[in-house]
Amino acid sequence: MTKIGYARVSTTDQDLEVQRARLKSEGCEIIRSEKISGATLDGRQELKTIIDFLRTGDELIVTRLDRLGRDTRDVLNIIHDCEQKGALVTILDPHVSTRGEMGHVVLTVLGMVAQMERRFIKERQREGIERAKANGVYKGGKQRIDRAKVLAMHEDGTSPTEIAKTLGCSRMQVYRILSVA
Fold first, then answer.
1. Which site from 8, 27, 123, 157 is most exposed, i.e. has the minimal number of CB atoms within 10 Å?
2. CDD domains of this UniProt entry (predicted)?
């Protein structure tokens, strides 16, 4: 049985170290991490790699349920995929596992709460942006990637993968910039 940890943060300027340290202290032999939104499963290559790698008796461990996802259906699908491989899923805070039937019920409820929380966050964010626009102070989101550099590197023949590695962003972000240009 292998304990495999998964750490995730939503943006490139957030830190994964607290999650990694907690997963390591829980005995995770392998820890995969990524900086990508948990709103959907799209582009979450590290999580896909873990699920593909799981074997009977392995255990996927995350610090909080929202690290797996913010959509109830996605969370339940991830758990289902793990169970199909004979693996367990454990959430550390609050401590819940798929070892027993009650764990499934609690994980379903927590998944619904995470989804509802995401909707509340998005609504508050939208309201805040509308207020800021009404007050004339909204300037848009912070630009995290030098778009001109992405375009220049692409024109020089650098692949999207290499651009992403060089600039410390995801390939998806590179593709978005290239699709607008």
1. 157
2. SR_ResInv
- Residue 6, CA distances (Å) to 3, 64, 78, 138, 181 in order: 10, 10, 12, 35, 34
In a domain, 134, yes or no: no
> Is 10 annotated in the active site?
yes
Nearest to 69 by CA among 2, 17, 123, 6: 6
pLDDT in tens, the chain (181 residues): 899 999 999 888 789 999 999 999 999 999 999 999 888 888 999 999 999 999 999 999 999 988 998 788 888 899 999 999 999 999 999 899 998 888 878 888 887 887 888 889 889 989 998 998 899 888 777 778 889 999 999 999 999 999 999 998 889 999 999 998 7
Active-site entry in 10, 25, 97, 159 = 10
